[in-house]
Amino acid sequence: MKPTLLVLAAGMGSRYGSLKQLDAFGPNGETIIDYSVYDAIKAGFGKVVFIVRESFREEISSVFNERFGDKINLEFVTQELDKVPEFFTLPEERQKPWGTAHAVLMGKEVIDGPFGVINADDYYGVDSYKTLANFLSSDVSEDYAVVSYFLKNTLSDHGTVNRGVCYDDGTGNLSKIVECLKISKVEGGGEFELDGENKFLEDNTLVSMNMFGFKASFFKYADEQFADFLRARGTEEKSEFFIPLVIDNLIKSGVLNMKLLSCDAEWFGVTYKEDKPHVVERINKLIDQGTYPSDLWA
Question: Vertex 159, ends 54 and 40: CA angle to 5°?
C-alpha cells in the first residue's frame, strides 16, 4: 500500500495577512503545496488528504484538483471547532482552532494505512519525502517517525515561531518532544518564555517542523487523548491540542518508539508576509539548479 500524505492547510493566515495556502511563489503561480505534492508523488505517495476549513474548502479544492487532481488521488476534509466528542459542550467564547493533533484526527475517515503529515506553508525538500516514504513503506512495526531540522534553519527574521524541540535518546529514537511557543531569533539560537522565565535554544537544536510518519493507530490514541485534553483544558479560551503532546504521552507511557529521521534536505517556510521574497528566491534557485521545471505541472 502506498502511503498517504496529510496536509495541514486549515490555518486562516492571521499572521500572514491572507490565505497563504494559495499564495504564488513559483514563476507560474505555484504555491508551496504544489512543490510539496510534486515531491510526494515522485517519492511514492499514493494519496493526498487536505485538512481545510469549510469557509475556503471549495476554493482550495477547485485550484488543486485542476492543477494535479489527475496525477494523484485527492481528498478534502474540514477541521471545525464543533468537531468534538458528544460529551463536550463547546464554550461560546471559543474561536481558536483545537490545534494540529485535532486537525490530523479529521483524516481518520479517509485514511486507513500509513501516512505522513506536513504543513501547507513549509517547504521540506526532495530528500525529506523520500526518507519519509521509505520509512512508511518499509517499517512493519507500529513505530512512528519525525523528520527533524536544525533550529537555526527554521527561524524567521520577522517574528516569533512555534517549534517542537526533539530530544534524542541516544539510539535514534525520541526521548521526548516539547512544543515551544513564540521563539524569537537571537544571536546563536532562539529564545522563548516559559513560566515567566526566558529560555534559550542553541542553533543546532533539533526541532520538528510537523513532518511526521504515522500508522493508522495514531487516530485511536489521538481520539483518547483529545477526550482527556478537553476534560482538562477544554474551557481554556486558547488551549491547543498539539501533535507533540500526543507523541510525548505515547513515548512516556512506553506504547511505541518514535524514530528520529534525518536527511540532507533544506527547509524553508513562510509565516509572515515579509518571508515571501526569501521563499521566492529559494524556489527560483532550485529551478535554476534543475530540481524543478520552471512550469511545474506542464
Answer: 50
